[in-house]
Automatic annotation (TrEMBL), chain A:
The keyword rRNA-binding does not apply. This is Branched-chain amino acid ABC transporter permease. Keywords: Cell membrane, Membrane, Transmembrane, Transmembrane helix. InterPro entries: ABC_transp_permease (IPR001851), LivM-like (IPR043428). Its main location: membrane. The chain crosses the membrane at residues 20-37, 43-62, 74-91, 97-117, 129-152, 179-197, 228-247, 267-290, 302-326, 388-406. Pfam families: BPD_transp_2. PANTHER family: ABC TRANSPORTER ATP-BINDING PROTEIN, HIGH-AFFINITY BRANCHED-CHAIN AMINO ACID TRANSPORT SYSTEM PERMEASE. It comes from the Bacteria. It is a multi-pass membrane protein. It is found in: Cell membrane.
Automatic annotation (TrEMBL), chain B:
GO terms for molecular function: ATP binding. Transmembrane segments: none annotated. Residues 2-231 form the ABC transporter domain. SMART domains: AAA (SM00382). It comes from Sneathiella marina. This is ABC transporter ATP-binding protein. Coiled coil: none annotated. The keyword ATP-binding applies. Belongs to the ABC transporter superfamily. CDD domains: ABC_TM1139_LivF_branched (cd03224). Keywords: Amino-acid transport, ATP-binding, Nucleotide-binding, Transport.
TrEMBL record, chain C:
This is Branched-chain amino acid ABC transporter permease. It holds the Pfam family BPD_transp_2. Keywords: Amino-acid transport, Cell membrane, Membrane, Transmembrane, Transmembrane helix, Transport. It comes from the Bacteria. Belongs to the binding-protein-dependent transport system permease family. LivHM subfamily. It is a multi-pass membrane protein. The lineage of its organism: Bacteria, Pseudomonadati, Pseudomonadota, Alphaproteobacteria, Sneathiellales. The chain crosses the membrane at residues 6-28, 35-52, 58-78, 90-113, 140-161, 182-208, 214-235, 242-262, 282-305. InterPro entries: ABC_transp_permease, BCAA_transport_permease. It is found in: Cell membrane.
TrEMBL record, chain D:
This is ABC transporter ATP-binding protein. It holds the Pfam family ABC_tran. Signal peptide: none annotated. The keyword Protein transport does not apply.
Length: 432, 231, 316, 250, 391
């Protein structure tokens, strides 16, 4: 959904399916997911993904679309959560009658209110000043949340019970599947709205101000106002995400608005690719998967996550979406096939190399942290003795040979890549 | 002094320089003429190493193709870019200081020389270079390179955007530079200046030289001027 | 009371100067290279851990010298093989890189040294109270910390004002090509600055390790406070960083030391309030409680009213 | 009827140095006015003062009789004054189409709307396409502006400035760095796009100036030393001395 | 045969990782030596401890709880931080209400906020440690006998447990020694203080002649060190000032000054059995110590309860646990009080010293030597719990 491709479809002669196909597909996917991943863990992961998708997209309104680097976006997310959980408790008390599924609205509204207050001074400048104000405000809020126990519940946060509202079509939200559909509905609506926002004059000018704030002033727009509008809208959606978080977990704590959460959303958006509308969605999905699945398999998963981040930033500056988009020229020219073999030739040794390194780390970790007399460990189902030489040799061979072979393949891969993407190259590129 | 042999350069896949050959002698002023986009700036950039050169570039008898930019600069090659690349956040004086490579060595040029030549600069010495007028920035860029005491300067369109009167001044400066024994490789649009001060001229076509001669010879050669230069 | 004020003043200065040691490296990197180095505190942690290991075998003093050098080298390597590569993707990418790096370093440290607190101790020679006042000790080690920080401040100030390095880097941030073509070895300078910045963080770590504890969370605990200092002081201003460090150090110590609360104020003004109201937390707010937020409050206020920071003269 | 632009004793200092030293100037509606002067005379500064980029140190600027001194740039734009920049100033990561559309949006009254979808606003898009056609970039409209060639960027710069249909258009060295043929095209474009409007431009290319301008002001050291028809300026001794110098005959 | 999985939800990363990791090892060791090595329960089923990292955050704990439940685990063990326990007990109660067919049981081995067995008590929660009130009661008994103490400073972490300690101290001191002045009652953020010197200065300046703190983990290391540095030479009464690097850090400066209240007993060892247990653990994990003796009780008692119930169904096991008596490795008798699910057991006060130490901590030569013991009966305090039981 890159910008340029979009302007091309400005004409309205495009057939219905082509025009809304993506959205219909998205809708169907949301509907059937729980049938495919029906386990508890699956539902849990998808719910979290949905929440993060909204949150990351709202963040990208600032960073990707408006050029505002925020270190405090969790403030709106967290406040949205707290507000919603309080309302949840009012509903439980019976002091307030309201359908549970609309609760995120309150989250959105408080996000909006705070965005208006904070945005009124922070959007005056972009760049470092904005970034640092957001950092300051973020830390301020996080620290305050531990002090103002009445509203934030201190270290323990505030919890609620989502099943106490009037049921909707027989949904009382006791089960995670029901919450899934609630979240999915919100995801569908908010993703749509956020996409549309990027296509409005305010959204377009946000891009313009990001690109060249001064010039925007000379075509009639106050850069501050343009940023302010984006900021408020972004705060609103972050608040909604917070509300959904409250419903899903039934607890909101200081962590929801602290710097770590702000950092996570930044990472998600960036890893996914801030230059693309779908970037943050992909980022949120991948991040959640890593977080909830990798940790099932290894103790040192955070080490891998760290390595992964660093590598992504180094080699995929436009995020995962950027990597995918790099393939569009080849795809358009129907040359994807010619890349398959080169990918395999470089991929297999690389995987062997990575497996070797990961195995090495796992073994070291095992030797260091396992009880003294426990020398047996198992990796991918294979059991072996870490105090014998063999496993180490195997691992070393995997890493060294894989690494070496991968290195020798770089040249051929690069060449294949060039030919596949070079419009002038005749079809001989395809056959090689 | 500078000897370029079969130089090729690329931007991505487009082959911009397709075998450029020319020389600049000791103390010589050589101009590189040609239409927009034929690759004159690219020639200079690839000599400086900013655009990766393919081919041979000998400076003072030594091969410099493939060296890093700063190594090339240290061998005595100076470069004045066409786009007024001043350091905007730094004052005029600091900009000039940036040109100096070795603080301990006294070269041909002192800051005072620069100020004498362009009193404008003296007046604005402690102002951020970014706010200078376009013309002043152009002067600053040139002076900054001279501060590094090069033996050969390559100057890309020094008179662009300058008022006619200043253009004349620049002409004088070029003459002064040559006077102090520095060779010049000049890229110019304004034929008049190039004709007046150059010892030799090259005319560049698409990616390679199409003509070489003295100013007088070029004046006489209507055909080249018609075909390769705009009159 | 006087005892409290006297020692709080001393503690504030010690804390402030320790923060300055960290901030100085960050200012160097942040203001010169424009890199918001989120991993700065992680290099500090590395310094402490490396020094701990070295001190086991060769004693504290060797660690004091060698560990920062090692950290500096690690920093240089990070610049050379990571940051330099990322640089071309812009500042946000650099920032995310350091973000990831911070994460990575913490994990690596835990991987190598484990999760428990290390018994990294002050050197024997400095394990005595320098003086005792009102029966309270002032450890000699703290005085030592004080001296080192001041020495670093003076040294850096000299280097920055007396050499052209600062200028070259500033030029190279925006126009690396142009700077190189004027004959400056830009990559080397960048690597050097980053290395030195990290080494400074390393020194801080070596020195703070014994005083504040050497544990995997030691970087996180410092958190963003160092950024706050650099920004409050003004980007690019070493003096600013120095002053801001002291302000923050004193602010935090005194806020903890002085037990005043809104309640006291209200009582003094003879106002009473409802103990059950939703705002009760506000009324009972006390200085030690708000101590952690004061630096951030200061940051926001400074940025609103003086976006260049106290001593800075540029915004970006 | 009041003048399109009227400057009254306009002054600007940076620190101790006064760059603009009391400029009085009237530019009539529909006039094509050129400002020339040596480098550093303050021409661009004058533009910045009029268009709101800098605050005034003294004096006043009137646009169609209304005082616009010290208004922010966007307010001035909204009152009908648009300008281009000496150093190309476009939205580099957006497509050419989007660049021009941004130049149109306020003029078409969309403001900060978040309830219109730009792709659905056919009138807006049609007008954008038309402007792009005029600046000759139709074949390049989906390319990010940052990768255009220099001359194309200059054309885009003019396009963005003129798109909104402001009555007063100010161009700062529109042809700088262009070749002869490109310059000719640029002049053509300027003519077309400013038809029936007031044009103020700064130029060093005397050919362009004498070709386009109805009247010329000569700014030297922050003061206007002459303001007259091209004929008279060309023959003025003072101007020759201060600006054209020895190469005047060229 | 089958296995019985027990989810261990505690911090395995972050500032309190050391505490959590140690607990995990102790759980594994207890399960292996006390249950699995003896042939398991219910005819050979083995205990498997499945670790979940909650980074000591209540929110993250619920996330992990969901995952654990998703994996079909029905026993949840947790202890580090009462904040987490409060969130967990709520969530588990809710879960069991919504999923009566698959209930889970909460084995709280260390979170000692009294509320958990009072106002917030529920059928699914069992606490194997003595709560903060019980411990403070024992601690203040000792303090009450120190006539030299006139001024006391209270400092703790700002969360439910810290607050509970402070409240209990104020209450019991007020009852037992109304003449003691409380010169400071301070809470600091948990896990966030980088330098405790300002606090130590304040304590010193207050003229206190004793300090009470519930601090643990990194917060205890920092506090202990800062107090040592100021040269403050007064007794410090603590809950958790030992092991996990704390003993090593405090070292000689705390000798005979630090007293600690706990349910366990390190020195002198009371019998062969416990000695073997300690030695076995030390052999397996030379860098660690038995930090939480109650873990052995938790595992042992769970196994007994399963045998007694004849099933591993949480409801049956919970019913079996209610009122159950258990003989610990130390030879103590522990009773799981049915009315509030609070374990009632002897409480000991130990001193930090390097004399007569058989089992030291952190391999530092220093360790805890028991000075006095309060019997189970004496330690019990009444509860306000009103519990709903499934029929
Ligand atoms: N960074 C670049 N990427 C791609 N193409 C480029 C780049 N820079 C220049 N070119 C192309 O290379 C060709 C030669 O450019 P060059 O700047 O050397 O021309 P020139 O002769 O100096 O012309 P000018 O009068 O415009 O300065 C042009 O066609 C230009 O479009
Ligand atoms: N912000 C500023 N601070 C200080 N001096 C400034 C500032 N802006 C401009 N100047 C100075 O004002 C003078 C006039 O600059 P201006 O850019 O207006 O010149 P100009 O007439 O447009 O010249 P050119 O034709 O070379 O573009 C210059 O000497 C410049 O250095
Ligand atoms: C592990 C323990 C130190 C936890 C503490 N007792 C609490 O209740 O929070
Ligand atoms: Mg050129
Ligand atoms: Mg100008």
């Amino acid at each position: 959904m890159s910008e340029i491709a979009k302007t091309a479809t400005a004409e309205n002669s495009v057939p219905f399916v082509k025009r809304y196909g993506v959205w219909i597909g998205f809708f169907i996917m949301l509907m059937v997911m729980p049938y495919i991943f029906s386990s508890n863990v699956g539902l849990y992961t998808m719910n979290l993904m949905g929440i993060f998708i909204i949150f990351a997209l709202s963040y990208n309104m600032l960073l990707g679309q408006g050029g505002m680097l925020s270190f405090g976006h969790a403030v709106y997310f967290g406040l949205g959560g707290f507000m919603s959980v309080h309302f949840m408790n009012y509903i439980e008390d019976g002091s307030f009658i309201f359908p549970m599924w609309l609760l995120p609205i309150f989250g959105g509204l408080i996000g909006l209110v705070f965005a208006i207050i904070i945005g009124s001074f922070s959007t005056r400048k972009a760049g470092t000043v904005f970034a640092m104000i957001s950092l300051g405000v973020g830390e301020l809020m996080a620290a305050s949340s531990l002090i103002f126990v009445a509203f934030f519940g201190g270290e323990e946060g505030v919890s609620g019970d989502r099943t106490m509202g009037p049921p909707l079509f027989g949904f009382d939200f006791a089960q995670d599947v029901q919450v899934y559909y609630l979240i999915a509905a919100w995801v569908f609506v908010t993703v749509g709205l956020m996409y549309l926002f990027s296509r409005t004059p305010a959204g377009r000018m946000a891009n313009a101000v990001r690109d060249n704030a001064e010039r925007a002033e000379f075509v009639g727009y106050s850069q501050r106002k343009v940023r302010f509008v984006s900021f408020c809208v972004s705060g609103f959606f972050a608040g909604i995400a917070g509300g959904l978080f409250a419903i899903n977990f039934e607890i909101v704590t200081e962590e929801n608005l602290n710097a770590l959460t702000s950092g996570v959303v930044l990472l998600m958006a960036f890893i996914g690719g801030v230059g693309f509308f779908v970037g943050p969605i992909i980022g949120a999905v991948v991040f959640t998967l890593l977080q909830s699945i990798l940790s099932n398999y290894t103790d040192i998963w955070q080490l891998y996550v760290g390595v992964l981040f660093v590598l992504t930033v180094m080699y995929a500056p436009h995020g995962l979406t950027g990597i995918m988009m790099m393939h569009t020229p080849a795809y358009r020219m129907k040359r994807m096939g010619s890349l398959l073999v080169p990918y395999l030739r470089i991929g297999i040794p690389t995987i062997s190399f990575l497996a070797g390194v990961a195995g090495f780390l796992e073994m070291i970790h095992h030797v260091r942290s396992a009880p003294v007399d426990e020398t047996l460990m198992s990796l991918v189902g294979i059991e072996f003795d870490t105090h014998s030489v063999m496993p180490w040799v195997v691992i070393a061979i995997l890493a060294v040979v894989g690494g070496y072979l991968a290195k020798t393949q770089v040249g051929q891969f690069r060449e294949a890549w060039e030919t596949a993407n070079n419009p002038d190259a005749k079809s001989e590129g395809a056959s090689s | 002094m500078l000897e370029v042999l079969d130089l090729h350069a690329f931007y991505g896949k487009s082959h911009i320089l397709q075998g450029v050959n020319f020389t600049v002698g000791e103390g010589e002023i050589v101009s590189l003429l040609g239409r927009n986009g034929v690759g004159r700036s690219t020639t200079i950039k690839s000599i400086m190493g900013e655009v990766p050169p393919h081919g041979s570039i000998k400076y003072k008898g030594e091969e410099i193709a493939g060296l890093k930019e700063h190594e090339i600069a240290h061998r005595g090659l100076g470069y004045v870019p066409e786009n007024r690349d001043v350091f905007p956040g730094m004052t005029v004086r600091q900009n000039l200081l940036m040109g100096v490579k070795d603080m301990k060595k006294q070269g041909r040029w002192a800051m005072e020389d620069m100020f004498k030549m362009f009193p404008n600069l003296r007046e604005r010495a402690d102002v951020d270079a970014g706010v200078l007028s376009g013309g002043e920035q152009q002067m600053l860029t040139m002076c900054r390179t001279l501060m590094g005491d090069p033996d050969l300067v390559m100057i890309d369109e020094p008179t662009e955007g300058l008022a006619p009167k200043i253009v004349a001044q620049v002409g004088d400066l070029l003459a002064e530079i040559a006077n102090r024994g520095v060779s010049i490789l000049l890229v110019e649009q304004k034929l008049a200046i190039a004709m007046r001060i150059s010892h030799r001229l090259y005319v560049m076509g698409h990616g390679h030289m199409v003509y070489e001669g003295t100013p007088d010879e070029l004046k006489a050669n209507d055909q080249v001027r018609k075909e390769w230069l705009e009159v | 009371m006087f005892e409290l004020i006297f020692f709080s003043l001393l503690n504030g200065i010690v804390t402030g100067l320790l923060l300055f040691m960290l901030a100085s490296g960050l200012t160097l990197i942040f203001s010169m290279m424009g890199v918001l180095n989120f991993a700065h505190a992680s290099f500090y942690m590395l310094g402490a851990y490396l020094a701990y290991t070295i001190s086991i075998y060769m004693g504290f003093w060797v660690g004091l010298i060698v560990a920062p050098i090692l950290v500096g080298l690690i920093g240089a390597v990070v610049e050379r093989y990571g940051l330099r590569y990322v640089h071309r993707w812009g500042h946000v990418a650099e920032l995310i890189f350091t973000f990831g790096l911070a994460f990575l370093i913490e994990e690596v440290v835990q991987f190598i040294w484990g999760k428990d607190t290390k018994a990294y101790l002050e050197p024997e020679v400095l394990q005595f109270p320098l003086f005792t006042f009102f029966g309270q000790n002032f450890p000699a080690y703290k005085a030592f910390m004080l001296l080192i920080s001041i020495a670093i401040f003076v040294m850096l100030l000299l280097i920055l004002t007396k050499s052209r390095v600062g200028l070259i880097i500033q030029a190279a941030i925006h126009k690396p090509n142009m700077t190189a073509m004027l004959g400056h070895n830009v990559p080397l300078v960048f690597m050097g600055v980053f290395g030195v910045g990290c080494a400074l963080a390393g020194v801080a770590g070596v020195i703070a390790g014994p005083a504040l504890g050497t544990f995997p969370g030691m970087a996180v605990v410092l958190g963003s406070i160092v950024f706050v200092i650099v920004v409050i002081g003004g980007l690019g201003s070493l003096t600013g960083a120095f002053v801001a460090s002291l302000i923050i150090g004193l602010l935090q110590t005194f806020a903890i030391a002085l037990d005043y609360s809104v309640n006291d104020l209200l009582t003094a003004l003879n106002i009473s309030f409802d103990a059950d109201s939703a705002l009760r937390d506000l009324w009972s707010l006390s200085l030690p409680q708000v101590a952690p937020i004061l630096p951030y409050l200061l940051l926001v206020l400074v940025l609103i009213f003086r976006p260049t920071g106290l001593f800075g003269n540029r915004e970006t | 009827m009041s003048a399109a632009i009227e400057l009254r004793d306009l002054r600007k200092s940076f620190g101790p140095t006064e760059i603009i030293r009391g400029v009085d100037l009237q530019i009539e509606k529909g006039e094509r006015h050129a400002i020339i002067g040596p480098n550093g005379a303050g021409k661009s500064t004058l533009f910045h003062l009029i268009s709101g980029r800098y605050n005034l140190s003294g004096g006043a600027v009137h646009l169609h009789g209304e005082d616009i001194s010290n208004l922010p740039p966007y307010e001035i734009y909204r009152k009908g004054l648009s300008r281009s920049f000496q150093v190309t100033n476009i939205f580099p990561n957006m497509s050419v189409f989007e660049n021009v559309r941004c130049g149109l949006m306020w003029a078409k009254d969309y403001k900060y709307s978040f309830w219109h979808l730009v792709d659905r606003e056919h009138d807006l898009n049609r007008k954008t396409a038309q402007v792009i056609e005029e600046i000759g970039l139709t074949s390049r409209q989906h390319i990010p502006a940052g990768v255009l060639t220099y001359a194309e960027q200059r054309a885009l710069e003019i396009g963005i400035s003129a798109a909104g249909g402001a009555d007063v258009i100010m161009l700062d060295e529109p042809t700088a760095g262009m070749s002869h043929s490109e310059t000719d095209q640029a002049i053509e474009l300027i003519r077309k796009i400013t038809d029936g409007k007031t044009l103020v431009m700064v130029e060093h290319d005397m050919g362009v100036v004498f070709d386009v301008a109805d009247r010329i002001s000569v700014l030297v050291y922050g003061e206007i030393i002459a303001c007259d028809t091209p004929e008279n300026i060309r023959n003025s001794k003072a101007v020759q001395e201060a600006y054209l110098g020895a190469e005047a005959e060229d | 045969a089958d296995t019985i999985k027990i989810a261990f939800i505690d911090p395995l990363s972050g500032p309190f990782a050391a505490t959590g990791t140690n607990g995990l090892r102790e759980f594994e060791f207890a399960a292996d030596t006390l249950v699995n090595a003896k042939g398991g329960v219910l005819g050979g089923q083995q205990f498997v401890i499945v670790p979940f990292d909650n980074k000591i955050s209540p929110k993250e704990s619920l996330v992990q709880l969901k995952r654990a439940i998703g994996e079909g685990i029905q026993y949840i063990a947790q202890g580090n931080s009462s904040g987490v326990a409060n969130a967990l007990t709520d969530a588990i109660k809710k879960h069991n209400k919504r999923n009566p067919d698959k209930p889970v049981l909460f084995l709280n081995y260390s979170a000692v906020d009294p509320a958990l067995t009072n106002a917030k008590c529920n059928f699914w929660h069992f606490r194997f440690d003595a709560n903060a009130d019980i411990k403070m009661n024992a601690l203040t008994d000792v303090i009450a006998q120190e006539d030299g103490i006139k001024k006391i400073y209270l400092i703790g972490q700002d969360y439910s447990f810290g607050k509970a300690v402070a409240a209990a101290a104020v209450k019991f001191l007020g009852e037992k020694r109304p003449d003691i002045e409380i010169v400071g009652n301070e809470l600091h953020p948990i896990g966030k203080v980088k330098d405790f010197t300002p606090y130590a200065t304040k304590i010193r300046a207050s003229g206190a002649d004793a300090v009470i703190t519930g601090n643990w983990g990194a917060d205890m290391v920092g506090l202990g060190k800062a107090i040592g540095d100021t040269g403050l030479d007064v007794p410090i009464y603590t809950y958790y000032a030992a092991k996990n690097g704390i003993t090593k850090t405090i070292g000689a400066s705390g000798k005979n000054k630090i007293r600690l209240v706990h349910e366990g007993n390190d020195n002198p060892p009371l019998n062969e059995e416990i000695t073997a247990y300690y030695t076995g653990f030390k052999a397996k994990y030379p860098d660690m110590d038995i930090t939480q003796y109650r873990i052995a009780n938790t595992v042992g008692m769970l196994a007994d309860a399963m045998e007694k119930a004849g099933s591993s169904d949480p409801v049956a096991v919970a019913k079996a646990l209610e009122g159950m008596e258990f003989k610990t490795l130390n030879g103590d008798i522990l009773t799981m009080r049915a009315e509030d699910h609070q374990a009632i057991q002897p409480i000991r006060i130990s001193v930090h010293t390097d004399e007569n130490v058989t089992f030291d901590a952190d391999n530092s030569g220093f360790g805890l030597v028991t000075e006095s013991t309060v019997t189970a009966a004496d330690s019990a305090l009444p509860s306000t719990c009103k519990m709903d039981r499934p029929s």
